[in-house]
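INPUT
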Amino acid sequence: MKKIIALLLSVLLLFCCLSFSVSADNSTITISDDYSDIYLYGKRYTRFNASFMHYELIDEITDEITLSTTQEIQISDTYLAIDTNKAILHAEFSHYDGSTLTADYLSEDYIEIYNDIMTSDKGTYVIDFMFPDGNTVKTEKVKLKGEYTTVFTNNVYIKDWHDVTSTSPDGVIEVIKGALIIGSDAYYYVDFEEAKISNPLKFSPEEYASFTAYKITDAMLLEEIEDAEDEYYDNDIGFLLDDDFTESISTVFIILVFAVLPFISLIVFFILSLRSKKTYKKIFSIIWISSASELIIFTILALLVKFYS
Amino acid sequence: MLGKLLKYDLKSIFRYWWIAGISSLVLSVFGGGCITLLKSERTLPDFIYGITILALVLIIIGISVFSILTMILILVRFYRNLFTDEGYLTFTLPVKRSELLNSKLITSLIFMFSTVIICFIDIAIMLGIGFAEEIFAKEFLETVRDIVNHIIDAVGFYGILYIIEIIALLVLSVLFSTLFIYICITFASIITKKAKVITAIGIYYAANSIFSFGLQIFYLFGMQSLVKWFGVLPTDSLNLTVTLVLLGLIFFMAVICSMLYALQYWMLDRKLNLN
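OUTPUT
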C-alpha cells in the first residue's frame, strides 16, 4: 500500500514539474537574433509588413523578455504590444547606440490566411465609412473595377476617401486592398497593388497630381455607396427630419441670412440715409453700402457654385 | 478734439494696463523656468514636481487674466467716463457724441491688439525658455522653414489678401464684441438709475444667450448646404473662393458693427439722461 501511494505521489510530482516547466516555457518571451521571429506564449510570431493591415493594439506586454547574450549587449529597452485578437504583435527595440528598430509580427496561425488575402482578389471587399458604426458597403472586386481612367486632382475635387478592405472569415485579418475616392464628378476605386501604393495607411489622393483608378459604374453598387455616404454626412437632427427636408431648410436659411436680409437692409438704410443728416447719414450710408457689397459677393459665389455643380 | 479725447482715454487705461503687461511678461519668464525644471533629466523629489506644476498652472492663469483685465479696464473707462458723475463733465465738453464714442472704440482696439501681441510674446518667452534646445535646433528651424515655404507655395499671391482680410475680420470682431457690451451698459443706464452694473451684466447675459442660440440655429440649419455647395468647387478655384468668402464675411460683419454703432450712437444722443 505504501509503495502504491509513493508511486502515485511520484507521478503527481513529476506531472507538476512538467506542467511547471511547460508553463514556464509558455510564459517566456524570446526574440530571434535576426529579429525575424518572436516566441510569445508558446506561439511563434513572424515578422511581416503590416502597412496593409487594419488592427487595434490594446495590450502592452509587460512580461519579462528573455534576451540572448548578443541581444543583452545591443538592446537597452523593448516595447511590445498585441492587438485585440492576439494575432499581431508590434515591437520597438531600443539599442544602446541610440537607434530604434520598429517591427510588426504576425501569429503563425494567420500567416497563410494573410498571404491568401494579400495575393488573391477573392472574397468580400468592404468599404468602411467609419461613421456611424457599422456603416459599410460590401461588394466584390469585379464590381469595383469599372472604367479604367486617370484622375487629375486639379480638375476633380476630392471630397473624401475611405479604405476598402478584405477580411478573413473570422474577421481577425483585415487587409487594406484599396481606397474608394469620392470625387466631385464620380466615385473611383484605387487598387493599391496595381497602383503600387506601399503605405496605404498614409495614402492621400490629394498629394498626387494624377492617379489611375477605376470609375465605378455598377448601378447597384453606386446606389449603396450613395446611401452610405448620405448616412455618413447625416447631422444630429437627421433622425428627426428627412435629409431632403433638412437640406431645403438649410438652403432657405442661407438665402435668408446672406441674400434676403442684406437686400432688406440695403433698401431700408438707403432710404434712411436720404432722409437723415450728418452723423446718421454717414452711418446709414456705411450700412447700405456694406449690405450691397455683401449681396454682390454672395451672388458671385452662388454663380460659381451653379456653374460648377 | 478726437485726438485729445483719445489721449485721455489712452492715459486712463494705460495707467494700470502697463503693470499687468509687465507682470505677465515676468510670469512668462518664470513659466519658462518651470517648464525647464519639469523637462530636466535630474530626479527631483515629488513635492518639487508638484509645486512646479502648480506654479505653472497659476502662471498660465495669471497670463490669461491679463487679457480679461484689459477688457475690464476698457469697460470701466467707458462706464465711468459716460455714466457716472464724471459723465456730467464729459457731456458738457464741446465734442460730438460720435467723437466720444469713436475715441472709446479706437482705444479699445489699440489695447486689445496690444494685449494680443503681449500674450503672443508671453507664449514665445515661455516656449523659448522651456524648449530652447528643441526650438533652436537646426532640424526644427528647417521644418518651420519648409512649412512656411509650403504654405507660401500653396497660397501664392492670395496669401497677402488672406492676411489683409483676416486682420480686417479681427478688427471687426473686436469692434463687434466691444459695441455689444457698450450697448448693454448704455441700455442699462437708460432703464435704471440704481444698480446699473448688475443690470448691464444681466442684459449682456440675456443678449449673449439669444445671440449664441441664433448662431447655433445657423450652424445646425445652415452649415449642411454650405458644405455641400462649396464641395462642388474645383481645387484650383479654392483660393478665389476663400478670398470671396472672407470678403463676404467682412462686409457682413461691417453691416452688423455699423448697425450696433448706429444703435449705440442713437442711445447716447437721444436717450441718455444722467439726471
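end of record. Residues 20-25, 235-241 of chain A have pLDDT under 50 and may be disordered.
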